[in-house]
Automatic annotation (TrEMBL):
Protein name: Aminoglycoside phosphotransferase
Residue stretches making up the Aminoglycoside phosphotransferase domain: 82-274
Domain of life according to the entry: Bacteria
TM region positions: none
Species of origin: Streptomyces incarnatus
Length: 365
């Protein structure tokens, strides 16, 4: 991961975006200017982030961030980018919980001004555990922290999930539920099957992903659990920290109604994903951080809800991540950055750990 070229994340011209953004801001605050427009190096491969300073005597804030739906010409990671849904979710969380989220300022659903819908929010200062190089590698600020500091960050992060799940009234989050008569968990998994079918349309299938879906069916919970507002991308790499305290929860594009364990499984597995990569590189990683047993116990103490069927939910997290990884790999193929190998499963960075989960041996290592 240290030397591989980073996949292309956009086909847009930052200077052109800056000019168009300034023109659009003038329709909201006459005379307003966007200065210092940058696309951060950590920009993901889904919705894009622009950072800029807002110059105007009546500006609601000076440091802003803009979330722009993915460029349709850039072989998008997801089939749909509903920016109004993300904007509404952020407002709901801000209004009905004490979970810290950026203050949203404006929503633009017309793709005309910047080529796709977007929303603008206040930029929150702090630091984020990096994906590249992963925070589990030596040299990361989190890796270099003390055990007590990492314990503090872990406790605060699990606390965020507990409060999110407990505080959002379900009736106010119904807009996140897709239509259908299935329970929330079945709807969630059905949506993932549809996403996988979209990813492989006209391309090689993944026997490993399909085996994981089969294993999910064997592990299906007897009781799915009541749905809550699920963040969807619940991982520390989507949180801004001031020191070791969370000050902003980011990236709500995968929010949904789902059982609590969907977020818990994602939180636990996404750390293991980075830890496993680190161990494979010859480093120790962070084996005692965000351990499954501690996360489950802490969440139970905070909420009174003991997490159930976590073998199912950590497998489901690894499966969901595998579908995203396969799409990212096929995206690299599309841009000529990679070729399709004889075994498409090798395109999934964590294929060994996913296979171990399917075989039921991962958590016994």
């Amino acid at each position: 991961m240290a030397t591989a070229p980073r996949p292309r994340t956009t086909t847009r011209d930052p200077e052109d975006l800056a000019r168009r953004l300034t023109a659009w801001l003038g329709t909201r605050l006459p005379g307003a200017k966007a200065t210092g427009v940058t696309v951060p190096a950590s920009n993901g491969m889904s919705s894009e982030t622009l950072l800029f300073d807002l110059e105007h005597p009546e500006a609601p804030c000076t440091a802003c961030a803009l979330r722009l739906a993915a460029d349709p010409a850039a072989y998008t990671v997801f089939p749909v980018y509903d920016m109004a849904r993300q904007y509404r979710t952020l407002r709901l969380v801000a209004e009905r919980t004490d979970v810290p989220v950026p203050r949203v300022l404006w929503l633009e659903e017309d793709p005309g001004p910047l080529g796709a819908p977007f929303f603008v929010m206040e930029r929150v200062a702090g630091r984020v555990p990096p994906d590249v190089m992963p925070y589990t590698y030596e040299g990361s600020w989190l890796h270099g922290a003390s055990d007590a500091e990492r314990e503090h960050l872990e406790a605060a992060t699990v606390g965020l999930l507990a409060r999110l799940h407990d505080q959002v009234p379900l009736t106010e989050a119904e807009f996140l539920a897709p239509s259908g008569v299935q329970d929330a968990l079945r709807r969630h998994v059905t949506a993932q099957r549809a996403y996988y079918a979209w990813v492989i349309d006209g391309l090689p299938r993944s026997p490993l992903i399909e085996a994981a879906f089969d294993r999910l069916a064997e592990l299906w919970p007897r009781e799915a659990g009541e749905p809550v507002l699920s963040w969807g991308d619940a991982r520390i790499g989507n949180i801004v920290y001031d020191g070791f305290d969370p000050v902003a929860v980011l990236d709500w594009e995968m929010a949904a109604l789902a059982p609590r364990e969907v977020d818990l499984g994602w939180l636990v597995y996404l750390h293991r994903f980075f830890h496993d990569l680190t161990v494979a590189s010859g480093q120790r990683g962070l084996p005692d951080f965000l351990r499954r047993d501690r996360v489950e116990a802490r969440y139970a103490r905070l909420t009174g809800h003991t997490p159930r069927d976590m073998e199912f939910h950590t497998l489901y997290a690894a499966l969901r991540h595998a579908i995203v990884m396969l799409r990212v790999a096929y995206r690299q193929v599309h841009f000529g950055e990679a070729a399709v190998p004889a075994d498409p499963d090798t395109l999934i960075l964590h294929h060994d750990s996913l296979r171990a989960m399917v075989q039921g041996t991962y958590w016994t290592r």
